[in-house]
Amino acid sequence: MTGTSASQPSYLDVTKGLFSWIFTLDHKRIGLLYLYTVGSFFLVGVILGVIMRLELFNPGADIIEAQTYNQVFTLHGVIMVFLFIIPSIPAVFGNFFLPIMLGTDDVAFPRINLMSWWLYVIGAIFALGTLIFGDGPADTGWTFYAPYSVKTGTNVSMTVLAAFVLGFSSILTGLNFIVTIHRLRAPGMGFNDMPLFSWALYATSWIQLLATPIIGITLLMILAERVLGIGLFDPAIGGDPILYQHLFWIYSHPAVYIMALPAMGIVSEIIPTFSQRTIFGYKAIAYSSMGIALVGYFVWGHHMFTSGMSGPSAWIFSLLTFFVAIPTSIKVFNWLATLYKGSIDIEVPLLYALAFIFNFLIGGLTGLVVGALAADVHLHDTYFVVGHFHYVMLGGTGFAFIGGLHYWFPKMWGKMYNKAVAKLAFAIIFIGLNILYFPMLILGVMGMPRRYYDYLPEFHTLNQVSTVGSWIMVTGLIIMLVNLFIAHRKGKKAPDNPWNGITLEWQTKSPPPLYNFDKMPKLAKGGPYNYPNAKNS
Amino acid sequence: MEHSFSLPNSGHNYDAKASKLGMWLFLYTELLLFGGLFMVYMVYRALNPDAFLIASFNLNVWLGTINTVVLLTSSMTVAMSITAIQKGNSKLSLILLALTVAAAVIFLVIKYFEWGAKIEHGFWPGMDHFTNLPFGEQLYFYLYFFMTGLHGLHVVVGMVFILIVMKKIKNGSQNKNKNQLLENSGLYWHLVDLIWIYLFPLFYLIH
Amino acid sequence: MSNTKNNHMEDSYHITGYAEHFGTWVSLILLTFMTVFISVFGADLNTLTVATALFIASVKALVVAYYFMHLKYDPKIYRIMILIVMSMFVIFLIMLIFDYLTR
């Protein structure tokens, strides 16, 4: 590695101590701060999920009562959605890698970046605060539907405030990435020369920016009704609770694309590297990300088909929902075409990427089922929906996150983990996931409602299967995490490009120096997936 | 932390265009934030057209008009203050900004009297007169207080932003060659004006 | 150490003159009085009143955006972006009211 001066220390070594982390302006450290906090909340969310599955092992109240169960699934949802999934990939891997992928040394607004993380922490503290004060955490579901959310004595106000603060954090991250992508690309790197993960982050950032304010104001309305008596959804005076649902889902549907697009971006990075060739259909994938972002704004009504909205309105939303599946499937075809006749390396990140495709296929297809108005009448608020969204969110985004972590681990820390253990953990997680969630699809069709701590005897066996699946999956997760933790401490030193990666981030040191590059990054002539490595040069 | 080369596209360089883009992006979020309230307004007015009309008679059209003129004028003064600094006239720029802040204060004072009168007559949620209102009128007033209240909050924020920029002009860090922050504060101020441009007819001019 | 990008003024190609700003102000005041006049002295137009009021408000908004906010002289991308954002919002309004109109 020839630099024009002595090689710089890595970003990890350049300063030490707690304050150098929590007051850092380095996008890489901010990415890691997010990793640790987001990861911690993921674990809390998992524990809540395990508790729910334990309760559901048998009908009736086993370990917790109905009221507590309502609070557990609410907190599970709030934590998983607002504290884990929505920030996850953008805030962790976006922060760490976007500047490197663009050939620059930081994001456009490093101080705003730090503020985003601080807002995340404050929002998290508010969310945890609901455990301590008054009547305990909210029991409304993470969706806070009026009028119950306005009436209940539980800590809805504090939860809603937490979500508001977290939303602001999300907006600032999106804003930062948009400006970074517009203004800080390396000279010679046009929009169509950026890696697809950058495109995914670009599309995602626009959703974060434009959709989040709507839920911001909606949550303020709930707060206003609880605190000031401004009853905008109060049915007693002609207010419409369905209007709340409209406003809530105008954000929360695009939010699922905040979850999905970056995940697909990671898959678009992993597959070329482990096929040792450039991605098939670069523009199709790039533009389909923008297409999903755009169409995704106009389908929110499919979450409310049975709410009392008008028939014609429901019909239109159902029709638009089918359109949004098209750009997604384009991506799947392109990934498969990339793999076809590629030089495949079955490494851990590729396993997660392939599993993503499998899981997202199930999740996406079941999404079409509930997107069909007639079917949804029967399936709304059943376990079919729960199965559907866990397949896309955990089987999809969750797997992409873990896969990304295994892919970029050596780059981030300069160490390698035990690959055999990682592969074993993957297998256990994958099997566990499917045993956990597939039965839910069946239970839903059989008619089991969601958000109930109790159920009819005919649902017993499948619930037990599902709960066992949760134990298997959690076991896999623990093995995976311990493996990475050990590697983080004392893993073998990794070379700069252990996967023979063909993108720009593998051209710099592992771990990168503070300003990302030791010498001016030289852009590859053949596009973002054409960089040299030991195998191809 | 030295490094031997500096990237032309470094994120650590001052970039006025990035700053401008960032401000516009933030404005989009503000537009959509208020947008949510306009959506609620649209629905409830469509469902309660007569009640909204009757409720609007409780507002004083002339006070609303004066406030509109005040904000429009303040938009002019802040825009002119940018012209001034770009022409190198920091002193004029400061005077124009001071006028802008004065206009903001006038707006808030008028709003204070308007709200005060309402509350005095019992038109606040929970008060007797309020709960006896027809439902549509209650919804009107919920929206009136929420939207003008949130707008007023943004007037205060905009005012503080401008005051900060005034300080920077005084100490020279905003000047003829570097004035994107002033321009950004102007953009924010125009947004405040824009929102009022819609609030005014929707609440005061229903007839 | 820091090479400043574009440290000359943002709109080096165009500084809006005082006269132009004043002219913008005049047109906004005129539009304001027009809308107040129609409302206070106009006939019972009902739905048309909303449409007219919103139309005039939108003209005012466009004037503020184009002249005071400098969109007229900014790179085209800014006009495109605001157009997209406002179009999205309008579509939200249309899709939302459609529910209530067809209930």
Could you please describe the fold and organization of this structure?
The complex is a heterotrimer of chains A (537), B (207) and C (103). With 537 residues, chain A is mainly α. Chain A is 66% helix and 1% strand. Chain A has a single domain (25-507), classed as Up-down Bundle (Cytochrome C Oxidase, Chain A), CATH 1.20.210. Chain A is built from 15 helices and two strands. Chain A has a two-stranded antiparallel sheet. Chain A is globular. The model of chain A is unreliable at 1-5 (pLDDT under 50). Chain B has 207 residues and is mainly α. The model of chain B has no long low-confidence stretch (mean pLDDT 94). The relative contact order of chain B is 0.16. Chain B contains seven helices and no strands. Chain C folds into two domains: 14-69; 75-103. Helices cover 70% and strands 0% of the residues of chain C. Chain C is built from three helices and no strands. Chain C has helices at 18-41, 47-68, 76-101. In chain C, helix 1 runs antiparallel to helix 2. The termini of chain C are far apart. Chains in contact: A-B, A-C, B-C.
Overall, the morphology of chain C is flat
By DSSP, the count of extended strands of chain A is 2
Spatial order of the strands forming the largest sheet of chain A? 1-2
What is the percent of helical residues of chain C? Answer: 55-70%
Radius of gyration of chain A: 23 Å
**Overall average residue pLDDT of chain C:** 86
Give the mean pLDDT of chain A. 95
Q: Quaternary status of these chains?
A: heterotrimer
CATH homolog superfamily of chain A:
Cytochrome c oxidase-like, subunit I domain
The separation of the N and C termini of chain A measures 16 Å
Question: Beta fraction of the residues of chain A?
Answer: under 5%
Number of domains of chain C: 2
Sheet having the most strands of chain A: 2 strands, antiparallel
Shape of chain A: globular
Number of helices of chain C: 3
Rg of chain C, alpha carbons:
19 Å
Class inferred from helices and paired strands of chain C? mainly alpha
* Backbone structural class of chain A: mainly alpha
